[in-house]
Every structure is written in structure tokens, then in C-alpha cells.
């Protein structure tokens, strides 16, 4: 089972294979401890470390915001590395679905464009930077219904 890992530095890596029977232990290993499961997409789970991660994961927060169709950071940020896995309708683990790859690639392009723009025109502050990221993420990634 293939998963994607989004680091706080906005690098994305693919981890394969992940044994469906031992996926939770592997995700804990990837994140370095106990994990929380985030449900922002009906076919994808976002796994974060339960505690101890200090660095904001702007790309993962933007992705979750885009999937929800609203600003997740208005309530909380995702921190540390984030693992994306697929899930079926019964909640069983699955490989990361194609739309997760598509959406992460779209966000990588958004961040590349913004870094290029910010090289000559810096955002006014962190909030301005986040609002620019959010606006472009919402435009680049389709909102989807999440599981309840």
C-alpha cells in the first residue's frame, strides 16, 4: 500500500509498500509516535503525530483546507510531517488514490508559483502569505465531501 508523506518543508515523498495489516504501525514509525487520523476527504486520510511536532505544515493545512472548501487554519494548523493514505467506504486502508497525487501536485505548483512571486514581491506578513496560499489552493484543488 503506497502512502504520500508531506513534510513541513513542503517536500513530498512516496513510501512503498505498506502492508495493509501493519499500516498503522508503519505510519507511527514514519511520524515518530502516536498518531491522529484526519478526515478531510472521503477517500483519503491524513495522519499526523499526536503530539510533539512543532513545525507548521503549511502545504498539508492548505490541502485539507482546499478539500474542505474553507480555511482550516482559522481553527487549527497541521504540524509536523503528514502521511496521506487511501481508505475505502468501510474505513479499511487503501493505497493513496490518484486524486491525492493530483491535488498534491497542484499544490506543489501553487507553492512554486508563490515562491517565484515572493522573490520580487514579498507578502506583507504571515497572514497575508497564508491568505495568498489559501486563495490559490482553493482555486487549484477541488473541494470534496468528507466523511462524517
Largest sheet: 6 strands, antiparallel
Order of helices and strands: EEHEEHEEHH
Low-confidence stretches: none
Average pLDDT, rounded to a whole number, is 91
Beta-strand content estimate: 15-25%
Number of domains: 1
Radius of gyration: 15 Å
Describe the structure concisely for a colleague.
The protein has 148 residues and is an alpha+beta fold. It is 38% helix and 18% strand.
Overview of this protein structure:
The protein is of the alpha+beta class. It has one domain. The chain has four helices and six strands; from the N terminus they run ββαββαββαα. Strands 1, 2, 3, 4, 5 and 6 form a six-stranded antiparallel β-sheet that branches. Strand 1 and strand 2 form a beta hairpin. Helix 2 (58-68) packs across helix 4 and helix 3 (98-118) crosses helix 4 (126-140). The longest helix has 21 residues, at 98-118.
What's the topology here?
Blueprint: E1 3-6, E2 12-15, H1 23-31, E3 35-38, E4 44-49, H2 58-68, E5 82-87, E6 93-94, H3 98-118, H4 126-140
Antiparallel strand pairs: 1-2, 1-5, 3-4, 4-5, 5-6
Helix pairs in contact: 2-4, 3-4
Defining key terms:
alpha+beta, six-stranded antiparallel β-sheet, globular
Amino acid at each position: 500500500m503506497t502512502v504520500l508523506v508531506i513534510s513541513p518543508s513542503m517536500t513530498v515523498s512516496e513510501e512503498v509498500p505498506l502492508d495493509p495489516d501493519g499500516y498503522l504501525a508503519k505510519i507511527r514509525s514514519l511520524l515518530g509516535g502516536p498518531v491522529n487520523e484526519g478526515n478531510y476527504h472521503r477517500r483519503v486520510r491524513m495522519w499526523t503525530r499526536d503530539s510533539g511536532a512543532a513545525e507548521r505544515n503549511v502545504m498539508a493545512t492548505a490541502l485539507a483546507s482546499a478539500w474542505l472548501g474553507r480555511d482550516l487554519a482559522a481553527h487549527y494548523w497541521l504540524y509536523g510531517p503528514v502521511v496521506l493514505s487511501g481508505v475505502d467506504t468501510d474505513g479499511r486502508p487503501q493505497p493513496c488514490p490518484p486524486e491525492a497525487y493530483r491535488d498534491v501536485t497542484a499544490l506543489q505548483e501553487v507553492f512554486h508559483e508563490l515562491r517565484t512571486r515572493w522573490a520580487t514581491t514579498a507578502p506583507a506578513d504571515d497572514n497575508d502569505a497564508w491568505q495568498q496560499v489559501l486563495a490559490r489552493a482553493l482555486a487549484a484543488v477541488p473541494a470534496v465531501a468528507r466523511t462524517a
